[in-house]
Amino acid sequence: MQNSSPEQAPSSRPPFLRIAESFADAVAPADFPAALLRWRNQRWANETGLGELSDEAWIAHFARFAPLPGNLPQPLAMRYHGHQFGTYNPQLGDGRGFLFAQIRDRSGRLLDLGTKGSGQTPWSRQGDGRLTLKGGVREILAANYLEALGVNTSKAFSLVETGEQLSRNDEPSPTRASVLVRLSHSHVRFGTFQRCAWMEDRESMARLVEYCVAEFYPGAEDADMARKTCNLLENIAVVTGRMIGQWMAAGFVHGVMNTDNFNITGETFDFGPWRFLPVSDPNFTAAYFDAQGLYRFGRQPVQGGWALQQLASSMLLLAEADDLARALVPYEAAYRESFSAHTHTLLGLKPSGDTATDIPFLQTLYSWMTESGANWPQTFFDWFGGPASVARAAASPQSDLYADAAFAPVRAALMDRDPERPERLANSYFLEPAPVSLVVEEVEALWSPIAEADDWSLFDAKIRHIEQARRALAL
Ligand code: AMP
Ligand code: MG
What we know:
Elements (H helix, E strand, L loop, with lengths): L19 H4 E3 L9 E5 L1 H6 L7 H8 L13 E3 L3 E3 L2 E3 L9 E6 L5 E7 L14 E2 H16 L6 E12 L8 E10 L5 H9 L3 H15 L8 H26 L1 E2 L21 E2 L23 H15 L6 H8 L1 H17 L8 H18 L3 H7 L7 H5 L4 H5 L4 H8 L24 H14 L3 H17 L2
Antiparallel strand pairs: 1-3, 2-9, 4-5, 6-7, 7-10, 8-10, 9-10, 11-12
Helix pairs in contact: 4-17, 5-8, 6-7, 7-8, 7-9, 7-10, 8-9, 11-15, 16-17
Bound molecules: adenosine monophosphate (AMP) and magnesium ion.
Adenosine monophosphate (AMP) binds next to loops.
């Protein structure tokens, strides 16, 4: 553990230090027996000025957690509470992670480097503070795929295998361990506010609001604390609605929409048992421990609203109920607009911008997808560019579905729309018969050779294919 604080220029002091005293505890990272670099996100390393690090230096920082120069002198485990499956839990907090550093991207956006699997903390309860290698691999895949699909998401930044063996009841055990570093536009969770409310700590919550507004929502600034709090809430409601609209268009099921797994910038965050839908199914549930299907695909928009209501309730410490309720109103429209806009985006279509025609289009499309059992990513791929892809769709592995009479209304609606940047169809990605997809069978299939023979070739190929999609979609 580092005890001395490196010299820090006031301008580069990590902003979180302003509130760390009330929201975090300094902790020591685990001392891992080994450190094998499995993934470095070179694109985001370049974006944040860390691209030049040698692999050796990378491991020193992102597995041994030597502080970045002038950054946090010691890792900080964050304190938070949250509702888990509807039940309030005041025993949460970073039990296997911490804030390691705060950095900025080229545009000046503040980004947290947070960890998962970096060792025990005061919040570990019975847990070992560790992350399985499979869990780390799954997070890299999901974050990269979501990013390629234009979904607002935290990024997987680094994965190092640590040489430890773990015991888990949801993986064949013993199983290999890893430590992940993720890049996130804040690690402030809805549950960070809930903890202040539970403790009736008005002063800490006011400082948290100050921090969130100053660093993430300067437009919400107001001399009046109650108004500022409502402005902040409204901003969070809008970005959360947008995020969930993007999930629904991407066929993404988060799996564990607990209030500690929502951050204030509307980034997809804290991946667990996530799934991508193979076919449209509103009842699809990702987590085996979600017996009631509380977080099933079709409930995600409602559940996002519920989480926001919990956030708003916690803010009663600083603002009036009516004003907070008003701040939540834009959530629904933000969700609906985003769902429509992102469906068009992923179909390579210009939105009409007219809800009178967009809403029936979505209904026609998604009803057909649910009833026909069409493959979700294949459908979006085949019809990318709408009228510009008639010939491509006719050559699809599921072209028989498009020839069926039931598809006629969808076809008519697609033909009624204009392609957006159809020149993207010239990309070699669109010349293949099928898109990149990430259904659970594929994840298991690429994990098996890693588990059995330390063979990463399928994983590498999947990452390359996702990158090809990201460039082709150019969102
Ligand atoms: P999550 O399901 O990742 O959102 O975690 C829920 C809570 O359990 C958080 O407080 C985590 O830090 C904690 N947690 C999950 N797994 C572990 C573990 N293996 N060791 C310690 N804490 C854990
Ligand atoms: Mg969590």
